[in-house]
């Protein structure tokens, strides 16, 4: 059976970091695919290419936007999952404080957007030193 502290760190620290990494990677990939599709659409449209070529470029742009949407939806789902926090006095103060900060970051992402997600990613990387958490990498 897992230690309750390990479960808290697993969800609020390691799991949250993993969700943010997936979000970042998929979002960047989605915008790159969207940019290539949009550029192809502009080039083929001006070039007077056939309808199939234009449709392929349009589908690439839509696929990229779908990938961005999927990354946002997955992160949104992760930060909205109700997971119990530490009971008062049940774990060391450093863990409780760090988990509380992770929960606060999740709430900020839920209320905010991509800027909050990237700020949370940077904040999580700083937590290892401040709260004596295990390293993320």
Précis, in short:
Helices cover 81% and strands 0% of the residues. It is an all-alpha fold and 137 residues long.
Task: Describe the overall structure.
With 137 residues, the chain is mainly alpha-helical. The chain has four helices and no strands.
Query: Total helix count?
Result: 4
Give the end-to-end Cα distance, rounded to a whole number of Å.
24 Å
Beta-strand portion reads: under 5%
Which sheet architecture does the biggest sheet show? none
Taken in chain order, the helices and strands follow as HHHH
Question: Class by helix and strand content?
Answer: mainly alpha
Tell me the total number of β-strands: 0
Low-confidence stretches: none
Average residue pLDDT:
89
- What is the helical fraction, as a range of percent? over 70%
- Please state the CA-atom Rg, rounded to the nearest Å: 20 Å
């Amino acid at each position: 059976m897992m230690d309750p502290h390990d479960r808290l760190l697993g969800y609020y620290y390691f799991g949250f970091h993993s969700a943010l990494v997936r979000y970042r990677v998929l979002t960047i990939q989605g915008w790159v695919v969207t940019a290539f599709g949009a550029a192809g659409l502009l080039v083929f449209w001006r070039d007077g290419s056939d309808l199939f070529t234009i449709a392929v470029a349009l589908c690439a742009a839509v696929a990229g936007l779908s990938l961005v949407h999927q990354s946002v939806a997955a992160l949104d789902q992760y930060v909205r999952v109700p997971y119990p926090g530490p009971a008062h006095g049940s774990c060391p103060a450093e863990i409780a404080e760090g988990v509380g900060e992770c929960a606060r970051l999740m709430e900020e992402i839920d209320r905010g957007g991509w800027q909050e997600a990237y700020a949370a990613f940077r904040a999580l990387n700083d937590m290892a030193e401040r709260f004596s958490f295990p390293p993320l990498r």
